[in-house]
Each structure stands twice: as structure tokens, then as C-alpha cells.
Amino acid sequence: MPSATASATRDEIECWLTDMDGVLVHENQALPGAADLIRQWQNAGTPYLVLTNNSIFTPRDLSARLRASGLEVPEDRIWTSALATADFCRSQMPGGSAFVIGEAGMTTALHEAGFIMTETAPDYVVVGETRNYSFEAITKAARLIMGGARFIVTNPDATGPSAEGILPATGAIAAMITKVTGKEPYVVGKPNPMMFRSAMNRIGAHSENTAMIGDRMDTDIIAGIEAGLHTILVMTGISDQAEIDRYPFRPTEILAGVHELVRTEPVAYDLGDADGNL
């Protein structure tokens, strides 16, 4: 498929960003070619990060989960919406304070960014993913925002998956707080290209030679385009041709899966010495 953007060609790519679910793994199983691609990047010393909008888990947790799926991804190669959110908050207000609705991934990231967790006049109310939303915490968040705290959300996803069906997610809880306060949150995670820019800063990458691999047009691809990246849509996630046709923009490339990015190394044969002795 011809390039739809002015980004670098694949041969010019030096750094890689990739989504996790639907690209590298599906239902805790590594997708074809994922392990080989990660190994290829590791062996070549290629700068890369695995990105996820999920803010529940720390990079260490996610590294362990990926290992159980058959993928060896070091924790320093994982960039979550929680890390991007903490990075953004630190850049705006170093040494600030926050009230958090979220799990260890979010609170750990903010602690490591130098933030104090408090329920008293925090600088920020940060809403991230959790499986334990409480009416009391949502009420407290709304009151703190109405009292002047800045409203930050890790990602806009309204629903999340589970074995029993969809679950209300960060975006749904944020919508409830917005309805109460009249305040719209600043969303750090995808599709905000801010998450990609912070990821590139983490590995010293530049947009002109960085690619983003994703499975969603409405988050991975649009954010990649807005960040000026070479974008690759893989068809192992939620997208099909009908989904692609819904949007007025196009990725640089469309691939069946990440296995198409794995290089086939030439086989080295021992042809013996100059005299023909094997």
C-alpha cells in the first residue's frame, strides 16, 4: 500500500513504538512474530518501547505478564499511560500533589515522579484505570476539582474488556465527574500524541525516524500521524477494512501482523578454506 503520509520509509526507521494488546499479544497469548520482533530489536540494540493505555499495572507487573505470554520485554522498555501522566504532571508542577483514583501503576508512577498523595487541596485529581471505583472516591474527586484541583485522566477509554463482557473504564468515570463539575479533563494517553512524544523523549527518538505500530485507527494511528510518525496498522486487533474506511486518514502501512516486520536473516554456510577443504 502506498504511503499516505510524509513520514520516513520503513528502511529509514531507527526507533520503534508499539502498542501491546492486539499487536504483540491477544488474550495473554503472544501473536505470531511478536517474540521474534522483540528479539530482533533487542539483539540489534534498536531503541523501542511497548506502549499501553492501561494504567493499572507497573512496568514490572507488565513485564512479568508479557513473559508469561512468551515475550521477553524488560520493564524499562514499557511505557504506560500512568508513566506518561506522571511525566506530564512533573513537567507542569515539579514536586506537586495529587489525589488519585487508580491502582499501583498510577500511584507508583506519581511517587517516583516526586509527587505527594493527598486528599487535602491537591494540585491534581488524577483518574486512572481501576477495578475498584467507589462512589466515595468519585464524590471526593468531584469536590476537589470544584475546589480548584486540575483534572487529569490517563486515557479516554469508556469501556474495558473482561471475561464476562465490557466493564466501565476510565473515560466513563471521567464523564461522571465532568457531569458533576462541568470541568473537562486533560487526557494524557492515546489518542493524545503527548504520550508518544513523552515515549520518544524516554528513548531519545525523533519523529522523523520513528514508527508506531498499532491496531486501532482511533488511537494508535491518529496519534501517530499527529506526532509525525511512520504509522503501521496491523490487522491482528480490532480493525478490519470496514473500520479503516470509516476514517478520513490512513496509516503509512497496513500489515497482516507484526510477523511481516521480522527480517529473515541470511543463512551463513561454511564453504571451507581456499583449497576447498571442509
Keywords for this structure?
six-stranded parallel beta sheet; alpha/beta; five-stranded parallel beta sheet; 33% helix; 9 helices; 278 residues
Describe this structure in words.
It is a single chain. By secondary structure, the chain is an alpha/beta fold. It contains 9 helices and 15 strands. It has a 6-stranded parallel beta sheet, with helices on both faces. A 5-stranded parallel beta sheet has the order 7-6-8-9-12, sandwiched between helices. Strand 10 and strand 11 form a beta hairpin. The longest helix has 12 residues, at 81-92. It is globular, with a radius of gyration of 21 Å. Residues 1-5 have low confidence and may be disordered.
Mean pLDDT: 91
What's the number of extended β-strand segments? 15
Structural category: alpha/beta
Strand content: 15-25%
What overall form do the CA principal axes indicate? globular
Number of DSSP helical runs: 9
Q: For the terminal residues, how far apart are their CA atoms?
A: 46 Å
Helical content (DSSP H or I, runs of 4+): 25-40%
Low-confidence stretches: 1-5
| Spatial strand sequence of the major β-sheet | 5-4-1-13-14-15
Radius of gyration: 21 Å
**Largest sheet: number of strands, sense, barrel closure:** 6 strands, parallel
Order of helices and strands: EEEHEHEHEHEEHEEEHEHEHEHE
Write the layout of secondary structure elements.
Elements lengths: L14 E5 L5 E2 L2 E2 L3 H11 L3 E5 L6 H10 L9 E3 H12 L4 E5 L2 H9 L3 E2 L6 E4 L7 H12 L3 E4 L5 E2 L6 E2 L1 H12 L4 E2 L6 H10 L6 E5 L2 H10 L3 E5 L6 H5 L7 E3 L23
Parallel strand pairs: 1-4, 1-13, 4-5, 6-7, 6-8, 8-9, 9-12, 13-14, 14-15
Antiparallel strand pairs: 2-3, 10-11
